[in-house]
Amino acid sequence: MGDNDEHGPSHPSRQEAPMTSQDDERLMSLAVGLAWLCPPSDAAYSVGAVIVAADGTELSRGFSRENDPHVHAEESALRKLAADAPGLAGATMYSTLEPCSQRKSRPRTCTQLIIASGIGRVVIAYREPSLFVAYCQGVELLEQAGLTVTELPGFAARAAGPNRHLAAGGLPGAILVTSYMIVLLPCATGR
Ligand SMILES: [Zn+2]
After folding, report:
1. Residue 55's domain spans which residues?
2. Residue 12 resides in a domain
3. Is 74 a catalytic residue?
4. Within a 10 A sphere around the Cβ of 62, how many other Cβ atoms?
5. How remote is the CA of residue 3 from the centroid of ligand 1, in Å?
6. Does the CA dihedral 81-86-89-90 come out positive or negative?
7. Rounded distance from Cα 111 to ligand 1 centre (Å)
8. Residues with CB under 5 A from ligand 1 (ion)
9. Domain with 62 in it: what CATH number?
10. How far is it, in rounded angstroms, from Cα 159 to Cα 29?
11. How far does the centroid of ligand 1 lie from the alpha carbon of residue 64, in Å?
12. What is the pLDDT of residues 121-178, one digit of tens each?
């Protein structure tokens, strides 16, 4: 990865925000904090999302069930922006969980909404476990649409924290995070 001194790329591909790994960690920490604000649910994940412009300016943020019992974090953050909001080209969506690729409560999935928005990059902490849907294809579909997807596995356990009651009820104490990493979620913590 060398320096890129080109300006005004002529190709129509999606722009990618020049965020550093430190930016990624700071913004994912913010998203994890938002996930803890979600009204608890036994039927849906608690997720936090932040949208940041290419220059690092925060454009929007959201969390699950923020202002509507069915709203998802990414959807909530996008809904606060005009469809043609300047800055979405080259923007990055930070979401604690892989964007959904199937949903019953809305005609469009978060994956579809993100692709339609013009956002160029999505950063997630963990992939959707096979709990409510058999196989979430959010990452695959985003990449197929030309977006860059970055996973931050170091945040997986923290990002899954607000959902540990789902693991206790639906899985044997663990959420399958990726094919190679399992985060054990404690059934009880000292309060
Ligand atoms: Zn969603």
Report:
1. 21-162
2. no
3. yes
4. 26
5. 35
6. negative
7. 7
8. 72, 100, 110
9. 3.40.140.10
10. 9
11. 9
12. 999 999 988 888 878 899 999 999 999 999 999 999 999 999 988 864 433 334 444 4
